[in-house]
Design a protein that fits this description.
This protein is mainly alpha-helical and 679 residues long. Helices cover 54% and strands 6% of the residues. The chain contains 27 helices and nine strands. A hairpin with a 5-residue loop joins strand 7 (430-431) and strand 8. The longest helix has 34 residues, at 290-323. The chain starts with 22 loop residues before the first helix and ends in a 7-residue tail after the last helix. The mean pLDDT is 94.
Length: 679
């Protein structure tokens, strides 16, 4: 039987033939592709001809295409549609990939050829993209231990393999424990909950054959909705403690994994001559050093702290007045009372907007934003396989009809899917040696409120924001026009990658955008102007609290990756690291670290700050649109040309200045959040 992963996909758009791929195909395909790729690497390293940019750097870039094809199916599905067998396969794959990576980066002959080309770079007359590829290749090898000798090389390989194994285990533990929580409530426990939440819970209970009950899980839409609307403080506390107490003990505990993983990362950094993993990790970023990261985080803390304290004082007074007795705010109270306060101040409740955000209409609206800004067209296609019935696929073309790529959308929670939202790709963009532009296949995956037997999927403004965010990432991938896959799309510096996604979020409060698709799902009436005005007026509500929450994650991340010795007490460590940005006192049995997949399983180690870094950029970038006109074609064209199409082909500082005409400033962000006033 032919393994479908071991040949080019002979399908429309060269799309992944999901229906032909079974679990038993993955491991053999990956093993065979690794062996083939290593032969390709050996042929480059053993080449008798003098090292050149083409026969060494470009040849290395093109090597391993079969392996990339297999991995670009396996890993996206491992996050979006995995079963126990796939998780077990990933545990076998992880060390294989670590060994493969080490075999390349520690190949002495290959390294000597790369260094030879790099040393004569000044005489090669390379273009911008070629120069970037050469530098990225050299730096990647240097950072992967190419300069190490003897026992240090073996230690490096051991550490890398163990880190890969631990990050995989961490992510699996988070998903597995999340899926164990089933909270059954009775009708008298539902006070305050929305009709949509109740109906969904009843439907979920019925599916489990628990007639007459209501099933709640810790899936993000369910948990967030419950914490906002449940009048039962005891149940909010119960849900909070369950949600924040995950992975702290028992079969799926991540505590020991965190200790070992952070210690190994610290050892890896010292092995490569850096004082901490944060120093090592930040070298290839816009920020460059931990000091610059801490400067940003601290300046935001100092700017937002007074506003955050004022917000909490107002919320505490409101809650006490509402309850008729002094209320000591606890973390499980914030969402509940802030939702009520927002409603009282602005006559705003995000549930009032949910009927106007029918998912099918929103899809048209979000796609239409790309049409209006960049001239893109999206047409659903039924020519390609889908990996789950919830998934839809779209053919994306440019204004002149040129094919740009495929976009897959996967919106709803299920047990086989990780929590959260993300963009990934089944294939990236590059130019073939023949000159053909090989186009990408992008996927955006979310966990939105599901439709029920009586209602379609109706989203909250927060979920609309998430859609806009991930769609921004998708555009970064779809519009890529680069020579090399390793520099295409979202393959940019980590603190630059969130700019296109967070930039897109700005349109949530743009009335002209909302008027194009926000119609009541039953009456067809357009969203009322006064409701949009209340949404806009309420956007700054809680901005300081939200910022401090992000800073909590950022400080915690940098602390974990600035250690120089193993951590004994994880709880004490987290409390100390976040002392200056905490909003509430630590709760026994509640931690962020054991579920912090971004930094312990998701590639954001010493990089969580990048969300705030990019937020400064996105506010500053949108400020130009605000001044020029939200849908100004010249401005949109410049953003597409200089940001969305260029991937990682140039220094992001250069790309951003080329678009903006100046250095980014924090001012636009502070103004948008209401921390400073004025136009």
């Amino acid at each position: 039987m032919i393994n479908p992963l071991l040949k080019q996909f002979d399908t429309p758009f060269s799309a992944t033939p999901f229906s032909a791929i079974r679990n038993e195909h993955y491991l053999p395909a990956i093993k065979e592709s690794i062996a083939k790729a290593l032969k390709e690497i050996d042929s480059i390293a053993e080449n008798d001809q003098a090292p050149t940019f083409e026969n060494t750097i470009v040849a290395l870039e093109r090597a391993g295409s079969d392996l990339e094809r297999s991995l670009n199916v396996f890993f996206p599905l491992l996050s979006a549609n995995a079963d126990e067998e796939m998780m077990n396969i990933s545990l076998e794959v992880s060390p294989l990939l670590s060994e493969y990576s080490a075999a390349i980066s520690l190949n002495r002959k290959l390294w000597e050829r790369i260094r030879s080309v790099y040393d004569k770079r000044g005489s090669l007359d390379l273009g911008v993209e070629d120069s970037t590829l050469l530098k990225e290749t050299f730096d990647s090898f240097a950072r992967s231990g190419a300069l190490l000798e003897g026992d240090d090389r073996e230690e490096f390989k051991r550490i890398k393999a163990r880190i890969s194994e631990l990050t995989t285990l961490f992510g699996q533990n988070v998903l597995k424990e999340l899926n164990t929580y089933e909270i059954y409530l009775k009708e008298e426990d539902l006070e305050g909950l929305t009709e949509n939440l109740i109906e969904e819970a009843a439907h979920a209970a019925a599916a489990k054959r628990r007639e007459g009950g209501y099933l709640f899980t810790l899936a993000q839409p369910t948990y967030v909705g419950f914490m906002k609307y449940s009048c039962r403080r005891d149940l909010r506390e119960r849900m909070y403690r369950l949600y924040t107490g995950r992975n702290m003990s028992g079969e799926f505990s991540n505590i020991e994994i965190i200790r070992e993983l952070t210690a190994l990362r610290s050892s890896l950094a010292r092995l490569l001559g850096r004082p901490t993993y944060a120093h090592f990790s930040l070298e290839p970023t816009m920020a460059a050093t931990p000091d610059r990261v801490m400067e940003l985080l601290s300046s935001l803390r100092d700017a937002y702290r007074p506003a955050e304290q004022a917000e909490l004082a107002e919320l505490r007074q409101f809650a006490s007045t509402l309850e008729g007795t002094p209320v000591e705010l606890m973390p499980w109270d914030y969402s509940y009372y802030s939702t009520k306060l927002r409603k009282a101040k602005y006559d705003y409740n995000e549930e009032d907007l949910r009927p106007y955000f029918k998912l099918d209409n929103l899809i048209s609206g979000v796609f239409g934003l790309a049409t209006r800004l960049y001239g893109l067209n999206f047409v659903e296609t039924y020519k390609v396989d889908l990996y789950h019935p919830d998934v839809r696929a779209y053919e994306v073309t440019d204004g002149d009809g040129t094919y740009l790529g495929l976009l897959y959308t996967d919106f709803f929670p299920r047990e086989s899917k990780q929590a959260g939202a993300w963009m990934t790709e089944f294939k990236s963009q590059w130019f073939e040696q023949s000159g053909e532009n090989s186009r990408p296949q992008i996927s955006i995956v979310m966990n939105f409120t599901k439709p029920t037997p009586t209602k379609p999927s109706l989203l909250t403004p927060g979920e609309v924001r998430t859609f806009l965010h991930e769609f921004g990432h998708a555009l970064h991938g779809l519009l890529s026009q680069t020579k090399y896959a390793s520099l295409s799309g979202t393959n940019v510096r980590r603190d630059f990658v969130e700019l296109p996604s967070q930039f897109n979020e700005n349109f949530l409060t743009n009335k002209e955008f909302l008027d194009g698709f926000a119609f009541h799902f039953e009456t067809g009436e357009p969203i009322p102007s006064e409701l949009v005005d209340r949404l806009i007026a309420s956007e700054q509500f809680g901005a300081a609290y939200a910022c401090m929450r992000q800073l909590y994650f950022g400080f915690l991340d940098i602390a974990w990756h600035s250690i120089d010795s193993p951590v004994e007490d994880v709880c004490r460590f987290e409390a100390d690291a976040t002392e200056s940005v905490k909003v509430f006192e630590p709760i026994d049995g509640s931690l962020v670290s054991p579920q912090f997949s971004h930094i312990f399983a998701g590639g954001y180690a010493a990089g969580y700050y990048s969300y705030k870094w990019a937020e400064v950029l996105d506010a500053d970038a949108f400020d130009r649109f605000r001044c020029d006109g939200i849908f100004n074609q010249a401005t949109a064209s410049s953003f597409r040309r200089n940001i969305l199409e260029r991937g990682g082909t140039e220094n992001p500082d250069t790309l951003y200045r080329r678009f903006r005409g100046q250095e980014p400033s924090i001012t636009a962000l502070l103004r948008r959040d209401g921390i400073i006033k004025g136009s």
